[in-house]
Amino acid sequence: MEDYLPFVISGLGLGAVYALSGVGLVVLYRSSGVLNFAFGALGAIGAYVAWSLLEADWPQGLAWCAAVGTAMGLSLAYGRLLAPRLSHRDPTIRSIATLGFALVVMGFTEWFWGEQPRRLVLPTDGGALELLLGEVEVRLTHTRALGLVLAVLMMGGVGLLLSKTRVGLKMRALANDRDLSALLGIRVLGVDTVAWILSGAFAGVCGLLLANIVRLQATLLTFLVIPAFAAAIIGRLHSLPATVAGGIAIGVLEAVAITVPGFASFRTATPFLIALAMIVLYRTEARRA
């Protein structure tokens, strides 16, 4: 068991990013019924903006804000300009449309910055928490610890937003019945706009963290949506705590998979396998019900 502890600790940080991503997907889905497949691409372009500004000697804080702001701005633009034109279509079509948006954003990112992998350096790289677990000493970098803290805080913040504010009440009403909510006077477009902005903010933060923990590459970050989707499926696209727990579990399992003989080179398939297993499980339960 002690041999696996370093991999478990390493996976916690990556899992925190997956958890944050899953929450970003669930927030938007609960309000609009749309699965945002452009989530990873928005995080990618935000991370590249931060990298460019840091290379130009901008202050760290401004670079981070610009990254999150870029992701939020693009998410808002899609939510206000394109998403309303598809509001009368089937939710599946509306979700697939975001995949086209993701390809456009990823294509622009690769054209503008190139495909060469880079690394986004954050101030939190300079230190680590030394943890003594039994007789094993493990290190948790400050960036990974920050990811865990953000996962809990942002989940709590979204939970309070949904349960304690008027905007949250409207979001929950839309999740139950959009047509009836519109008849009752709820401004559907306005509520959806808030959800798109929140989703973009989560994408920007996750892009920064993943670009630091793994690497800065448009394709890699774009496919962040896969483990995020798996985490959201574990939460049944509704439960925020289950989504966070699922995301962290996926990160840990992906890290531990390195130790499995013959599976190490396929460990990136872990989120796919988990998502598939959960879909099959839930469909089986639905049929029994």
UniProtKB/TrEMBL annotation:
It holds the Pfam family BPD_transp_2. The chain crosses the membrane at residues 6-27, 34-54, 60-83, 95-113, 145-163, 184-210, 216-235, 242-260, 266-284. The keyword Electron transport does not apply. It is a multi-pass membrane protein. InterPro entries: ABC_transp_permease (IPR001851), BCAA_transport_permease (IPR052157). GO terms for biological process: amino acid transport. GO terms for molecular function: transmembrane transporter activity. It is found in: Cell membrane. This is Branched-chain amino acid ABC transporter permease. It comes from Acidovorax cavernicola.
